[in-house]
Specification:
By secondary structure, the protein is mainly α. The protein folds into 2 domains: about 50 residues, no CATH class; about 40 residues. About 50% of the residues lie in helices and about 10% in strands. It has a two-stranded antiparallel sheet. The protein is elongated and about 55 Å long. The chain starts with a strand and ends with a helix.
Length: about 90
């Protein structure tokens, strides 16, 4: 555990290197811009995940869920084959 200067009140507070730690003096988060960045990044990751064509939603019917699961499986196999071919091409000349 260390100490970090609060970006809001300017006093030193105990810090466990967690973005959500709060200042012992003013109660505001010690993360500052890092905390904002982490929250923004988490929101972007969630939005990207939901845009995935094979994203399985709770509201999907059983048939659609199974088709999307099969799509995810075959997509994984496809990427594995392409990766193996790329590795093979890179390994052959050397």
């Amino acid at each position: 555990m260390g100490e970090k200067k609060c970006p809001h009140c300017g006093k030193w507070s105990d810090w466990n290197q967690n973005y959500t730690d709060t200042c012992t003096h003013c109660g505001k988060p010690l993360g500052g811009t890092d905390l904002e960045y982490q929250e923004k990044r988490a929101a972007q990751e969630k939005a990207n995940e939901e845009q995935w064509v094979f994203y399985i939603k709770e509201s999907d019917s059983t048939l659609v869920k199974r088709l999307k699961a099969a799509g995810n499986f075959f997509y994984t196999i496809y990427i594995a084959i392409i990766t193996f071919i790329a590795w093979l091409i890179a390994a052959l000349p050397g």
